TrEMBL record:
GO biological process terms, semicolon-separated: translation
Gene Ontology terms: cellular component: cytoplasm; ribonucleoprotein complex; ribosome
Record family assignment: Belongs to the bacterial ribosomal protein bL21 family.
GO MF annotation: an example: structural constituent of ribosome
Source taxon at top rank: Bacteria
HAMAP family on file: Ribosomal_bL21
Native species: Amnibacterium flavum
Gene: rplU
NCBIfam families assigned: L21
Pfam families given in the database record: Ribosomal_L21p
The entry's keywords: Ribonucleoprotein, Ribosomal protein, RNA-binding, rRNA-binding
Name of the protein in its database record: Large ribosomal subunit protein bL21
Biological role stated in the UniProt entry: This protein binds to 23S rRNA in the presence of protein L20.
Length: 102
């Protein structure tokens, strides 16, 4: 079993070939593909975490589409002062399918 831990959008995700992952918004190239930076590679019983060895590893993914996350509501309140603030946010996301780990 081959899988990799990749850095994407300030987080780390465990991916295998064929895995569909939702990441922070990433701009794709003209073909709709992206490359992700691996942090760790597991190939059977071999574990690679050396930076110079990981520089040769390429994790490619195909962009399936852009979407927006669930709405979150931010509320601030201070007692006895009449201060109330309400704000909403929806994160911009990209759904990708991992096509290769080489």
């Amino acid at each position: 079993m081959v899988y990799a831990i990749v850095r994407a959008g300030g987080r780390q995700e465990k991916v295998e070939v064929g895995t569909v992952v939702v990441l922070d918004r990433i701009k794709a190239d003209d073909n709709g593909n992206i490359q992700l930076a691996p942090v760790l590679l597991v190939d059977g019983e071999n574990i690679t975490h050396d930076a110079s060895a990981l520089a040769k590893v390429v994790v490619t993914a195909e962009v399936l589409g852009d979407e927006r996350g669930k709405k979150i509501v931010i509320q601030k309140f201070k007692n006895k002062t009449g201060y109330k603030k309400r704000q909403g946010h929806r994160q911009e996301l990209t759904r990708v399918k991992i096509t290769g780990i080489k």
